[in-house]
C-alpha cells in the first residue's frame, strides 16, 4: 500500500531551500538598523493583535519584510556571480552618478547598506572631514563590491555625493524615529545603532535639542514647501534616467534639454504640473522665435533663460557642473582678490595724489603770474599819473 502523501518527506529543491532559509532568518530578532524602516520606528510586533492595528497596506508591507528575511546585497552578489566579475562603475567627468541605470541603482543601494551597517551618523559633515577613516572605510567597501577606479576624481566625487546624501537621510530618519515628538525624559540615552557609540548619539541629541537647529529645520521645511517642480523619475537619478531615455526614444535624433526636462518632470498618473507646463510652453515659444539680425539661441541658453535658478542641466549631466572649491581655497582666493583690489586702490590713490600735487603747483604758478601782473599794472598806473602831471605843467607854461 502506497504511503499517504502527507507522510512523504518534502522534496529538497533549491526553491524549498531558499524558502526555509528565509523563514529561519525571519525568526531572528532584527537589528537596530532595521528599526529605521519599520512604521513609526517601532519594533516587530509581539503578537498577532498588534499586526491588526494600523493601515492594512502598511501592515502587509511590514509582514512581507519580516517574512522575506535579509536580502540586502544578495542581488548584487547574484549579478556578480553570473558575470564572473564585479559590476563596473564608470562615472564621466562632471557627472554625479553613473549613466548606466543598473550601475547607478546598485551603487546607491550598496551605499545605503554600507552606511546603515558600518558608518556612524555624526552631527556635521565637517566631522567626517576631520576623521577621514569613515570615508576611507566606505570607499574601501565600495571598491570591494564594484570594479571602480578609486583614484578617479569623477568616481570620488560621485561616491562623496552619495555618502553625504545617504548620511543626511539616515540622520533625518534617526531624528524622526527616536527624537521628534518625544519628551526630553523619554529620549533614549543609548545609541540605537550598532555602528554608533553612545557619545556619538549624545552629540546628535544635543544638536537636535539646540534652539538654533530647530529654527533652522523649520526654515528649511518651509523652503521645501515652496518647491513647485517635483522630480518624477522615482528612485532613478536624473543622469541614469536621461541616459535610458536617450537610448529608448532618441536613438537617431539627439534629445534637447527641453525633451529631457519633459521626461524627468512628467508623472505617469497626473502628467505635468501647471508650473512645468508654463515653463515648457515658454521654452517652446522661444524655440520658434527667430529674431532678424540675431543668431538663434541654443536650447541650453533658452532653458537657462526660462529657468535661471534651476540646476537641471548640471544634475542631468547635460552641462558639466562647475568644480566646487573647498573652504580654504575659497578663502585664499577671496583674500587674493581683496589684496589685488587694495593694491589697485593704492595705485589709484597715488595717481590722484600726484595729480593733486601737479594742480597745486600749477595754481602756485598762476598766483605768482597774477601777482606779477598786478605789480605791472600798479607801475603803469604810477607812470600814467606822472605823465599826467608833466602834461599839466606844460599846458600851464604855454598859457603864461
TrEMBL record:
The answer to whether keyword Coiled coil applies is yes
**What UniProt keywords are attached to this protein's entry?**
Coiled coil
Q: Which residues form a coiled coil?
A: 328-383
Task: Fetch the InterPro entries from UniProt.
Answer: Probable_transposase_24 (IPR004252)
Q: Where is the composition biased (Basic and acidic residues)?
A: 1-10
Q: Which Pfam families match?
A: Transposase_24 (PF03004)
The annotated region (Disordered) lies at: 1-33
Report the protein name in the record. Transposase, Ptta/En/Spm, plant
